[in-house]
Structures are given as structure tokens and as C-alpha cells.
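Researcher: I'd like a structural prediction for the single chain below. Treat it as a standalone chain; there are no partners to consider.
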Amino acid sequence: MLIIKTRERKRENPSHPKQRSPFKIRVKNSYKTTIMIRLNLQLCKCFKQISFENEITAFNRYVSSVNIETLVCPFCGAKHALSPFASYKRHLVTYNNNNSNNNNVAQDNIIIISRYICSSCKRTHTLLPSVIVPYMSFSFNFTVYLIYDYFVHKYHSVEAMCEHYCIAISTFYRILKKFKEHKQIWLGLLEDKLISNLSFVQHIINSSFDELEDFIIQFFKQNGSSFFQGTS
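Model: Treating it as a single chain, here is the predicted structure.
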């Protein structure tokens, strides 16, 4: 198993921003910049019947199904040139059912991220499944449901919602701002005005895994960054 430990996320003081996670990509000076490799269904065919409901299970199956021989260096395009280089630990906050009272709760997981080095260009690359938003400790599913609960007014105040999700209010507003920015980038100015924020996030939640996977990959290919990336 790739997961070291899982615990229910501790509640933050909503009035104070969350400190930047210390689990960032660090590259030794003897090597060049780290680039991320986004996995997709071509590498993970076992995911045809998987959903994002349990992202830790999705993460484990993603990584265990990777065939390194099929990976291409995203910088120089070299084939069969990647080899294991190192790994690092990082937080992944998910939003899953806790099985005790049938309610979703924020869970703070520590996962291991693999890094590979290209023998051609000497750059190191981080292998990231779609459940992970780069440079962000919150999972894709976590951020989507956070945004959804805000637009449907599930809680009587933003403070109450942030307390449930165990995040600072300032963190939520950064996520909300990035959601609106990326929605506009994806849809374009005209469609962004015609499609409400709630309708868009509902479409994401109701999408099949294949549809959601395709959306994440296509957004990354189009913009060079992932949906929600840039909120930390």
C-alpha cells in the first residue's frame, strides 16, 4: 500500500489562513526542474469502473497500474528513458464517508509521490494521478464538493462550511476565485456568462469517471496546468 496513515482532519481556526504545506517538490541542484506527468486512462485501463468517491483507493490503483515503459518524458519526448529517481511524502486531504454516521468528513492522508528521472534530458518528473491537484493539499473531489456546498447554501454561513471542511475562510475564497477563473478559461467568456457556476459544478459531480478524467486531462493539455491549480 502507498498510504502511510490516514486520520480525520483537525479543524483549523477559520479566521487564520492555513500555512503552506511543507511537502513541496524539492529538486537537488545537480538536476534540472521537476515536471509533472499526468496519468490518464490510456495508462490505467483498470479504471473503467472506478469513481472518484474514494480517492485514496483511486490513487493506489492509479500508481500500482503504471507501466513505466509506456511513459514519455514530458520535456524532451524521449521514450523508454524514465527510471525511478526518488519519492517524497505529501498531504492529500480527501472528502470521504467516515462510515460511522454516514456523513462525509475531511480526512488528512499522507501519501508517497514517485519521481522519475529522464536519462536523456536529466530532468526529474513527478507522477501525479488526476485525483491530485498539483501544489495543493486538497484533492480534486474535496474542492469540487466544497464549491458545490457553497453554491447550494448547504450551511448557514461560510464560517460554518469552512468549519465542517476544516479549512480557513481565506483558503476557501482562494479556491472559489480559482474555480471561477478556470471555468471561464474552459468555457470562454460567452458560455461562462450563460452557464451558472452551480450548473457547471453539478455537471462535474454528475459526470462519469471517463468524462471527468477526460475533462481533467483536456484542461491540462489546453492550459499547461490542472483545474484548481494555483490556489495555494
